[in-house]
């Protein structure tokens, strides 16, 4: 959805301020005509680039180039795979998604991902539950994917389901909204707060507007100073000690072992 003028302004900010990491997400960010542009500009600026990849995009016509393109630019791939079982993945994301994901992972392995290049997977639980312990789930994933498909990867990140958007609608429809919030509140772990993504990451939407995290973006909780703030309105030195906008959904990131863009952030409370 990002347009050319916005893409160029974001790219100019990256060139000038040289962020350590540029993390490209969507939807499916590869669908944007500016995806390759952002990868190339960010690598030229010296940034480590992450592609938040949903795997099935690699199986779509016209996107066969992705594994080699990503490998050629040493892009880290963080890929969504809610489970290593076909039944659970298809239940959560639709029929046929699991097989497409497995085929895509094999192509990434052939391109060097999981060995010489970083390939990390994302797990989120089905329904209103907290993720299990990340190290144990990672072991289970590695054993199952290697045994059943010959697939290797580096790390597994566990992400707690946020009580927003479609998941919030599902909870309310099932009469489980209060139950899930009580679960999050009762599992609050203060040691997670130091490692949350909102403390070190800027979330930038397709218009260039700034948010503390992707979840605040989905809720429209943008930065304001009398009006909406955009990436090109700020410099890195303006970001120190800035207050973070919070809401009830933040308890998802602070429950149990916590949940951030790289999974669990603390020991389970």
Q: What level of helicity do the residues show?
A: 25-40%
Name the strands of the widest sheet in spatial order.
1-2-3-4-5
Mean pLDDT: 94
Overall geometry: globular
Taking all Cα atoms into account, the compactness measure Rg is 19 Å
Report the uncertain regions: none
In angstroms, what separates the terminal alpha carbons? 40 Å
| Strands, total number | 7
The assigned structural class equals alpha/beta
N-to-C SSE series? HEHEHEHHEHEHHEEHH
Tell me the major beta sheet: 5 strands, parallel
Percentage of β-strand residues: 5-15%
List keywords for this structure.
alpha/beta, globular, 269 residues
Nutshell version of this structure?
The chain is of the alpha/beta class. The protein has 10 helices and 7 strands.
Structure description:
By secondary structure, the protein is an alpha/beta fold. The protein has helices at residues 4-17, 35-44, 66-72, 86-93, 97-110, 134-149, 165-173, 177-186, 214-218, 250-253; strands at 21-24, 48-53, 76-80, 119-123, 155-158, 203-204, 210-211. It is globular. The model has no long low-confidence stretch (mean pLDDT 94).
Topology of helices and strands:
Blueprint: H1 4-17, E1 21-24, H2 35-44, E2 48-53, H3 66-72, E3 76-80, H4 86-93, H5 97-110, E4 119-123, H6 134-149, E5 155-158, H7 165-173, H8 177-186, E6 203-204, E7 210-211, H9 214-218, H10 250-253
Helix pairs in contact: 1-2
């Amino acid at each position: 959805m990002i347009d050319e003028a916005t893409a160029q302004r974001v790219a100019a900010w990256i060139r000038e301020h040289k962020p350590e990491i540029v993390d490209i997400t969507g939807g499916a960010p590869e669908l944007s005509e500016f995806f390759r542009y952002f990868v190339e500009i960010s690598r030229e600026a010296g940034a480590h680039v992450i592609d938040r990849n949903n795997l099935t995009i690699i199986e779509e016509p016209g996107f066969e180039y992705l594994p080699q393109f990503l490998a050629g630019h040493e892009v880290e791939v963080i890929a969504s795979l809610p489970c290593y079982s076909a039944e659970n993945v298809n239940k959560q994301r639709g029929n046929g998604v699991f097989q497409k994901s497995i085929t895509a992972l094999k192509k990434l392995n052939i391109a060097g991902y999981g060995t010489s290049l970083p390939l990390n997977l994302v797990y989120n639980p089905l329904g209103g539950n907290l993720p299990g312990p990340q190290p144990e789930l990672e072991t289970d994933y590695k054993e199952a994917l290697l045994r059943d498909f010959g697939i290797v990867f580096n790390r597994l990140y566990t992400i707690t389901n946020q009580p927003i958007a479609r998941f919030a609608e599902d909870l309310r429809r099932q009469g489980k909204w209060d139950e899930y919030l009580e679960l999050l509140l009762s599992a609050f772990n203060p040691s997670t707060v130091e490692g949350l993504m909102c403390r070190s990451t800027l979330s930038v939407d397709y218009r260039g507007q700034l948010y503390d995290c992707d979840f605040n973006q989905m809720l429209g909780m943008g930065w304001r100073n009398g009006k909406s703030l955009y990436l090109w309105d700020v410099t890195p030195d303006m970001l120190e000690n800035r207050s973070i906008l919070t809401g009830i959904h933040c308890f998802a990131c602070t429950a149990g072992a916590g949940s951030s863009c790289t999974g669990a952030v603390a020991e389970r409370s």
